[in-house]
Amino acid sequence: MMNVAVAAGGYSDEYIVSLKSCELVYDSLNPEKYRPVRVRILKEGWYAEIEGEKFPILKEDFSYIRNGEKHRFDCVVNIIHGTPGEDGYMQAYWELIGLPYTGCNFYQAALTFNKKDCIAVLDKYGIPHAESAYVNRELGYDTDQIIEKVGLPCFVKPNQSGSSLGITKVKSKEEFEPALQKAFKEDKEVLVEAFLDGTEVSVGVIKFKGKTKVVGITEIVSHNEFFDYEAKYEGASEEITPARIDEATKMKVEEIAVKVYESLQMTGISRSEYIIVNGIPNFLEINTLPGFSPASIFPQQASYAALDLKEFFDNEIEIALNRKNLWNE
Length: 329
Description:
There is one protein chain. By secondary structure, this protein is α+β, with helices and mostly antiparallel strands. It folds into three domains: about 1-100, Rossmann fold (3-Layer(aba) Sandwich); about 110-130 and about 195-290, D-amino Acid Aminotransferase, Chain A, domain 1, CATH 3.30.470; about 130-195, ATP-grasp fold, A domain (Dna Ligase, domain 1). Helix content is about 35%, strand content about 30%. The chain contains ten helices and 16 strands. A seven-stranded mixed beta sheet has the order 6-5-4-3-2-1-7, with helices on one face. A five-stranded antiparallel beta sheet has the order 14-13-12-15-16. Helix 2 (about 90-95) runs antiparallel to helix 3 (about 105-115). The longest helix is centred in the C-terminal third of the chain and has 19 residues, at about 310-325. The two termini are about 25 Å apart.
């Protein structure tokens, strides 16, 4: 049997969602193949949690000591949201110590977590996206110039953050500065994007048995101004799977989502967001560790697609072990 760490938590406000996601992932691992252990990666420390007891993680090899015996892991299933598990730091660490992990590698994690840089790369592949402007708190900015470029209304969002934390829909010039300050609380870099009036969809994409596969397309109907934290996790939205779009639009969304996944050379799960305007899906962002909490979209898509999660995580762990073999070549 393989010893598998289900790593959850993180250093941002998203850690709460991650700890909820951990439970579904933990329960989805085949007990005939794996001995899963919950591992918490939190600001206050790293520890394995077993039967209510906490055992500190030794950072030299990501092991722990219990009853005088050292326990090592054969693989990590990563479900950490936000930094340091979604932005490349943990991936680079695990790779340095030679421990296989699920999901994308450290470069893809760092790139996709940085909205500005990710959009810049995908622009080279012809992926449609909203007009945007970049603001760095330390470099100064011209509000009039930004608004002239992107127009009103617009979205002000932290460049590196998830779960819609720190995002504001700005309708007037007077609302712009307070929105910036809210975003700056999450990140010193901010992305300002033009408002697109269309249908919002979330698309789950995976690499499964060697093929890139769209798991599902979910339509997002927010009861709020946009799909914010409350809409995502506190029931203030409708998530309709499959999305209510015609077949031609569905095919276009799938085509773009697969192109995004493959252009970024992704592995593991991804959930990318789009606004469909006149039949064209415009890229918003990609999440490389989407939530697995009861309120999360990807499990809904997996259920609709009849994707067996035990089989899926078998596939993820197999990819992780094969990647380790490439490190050793």
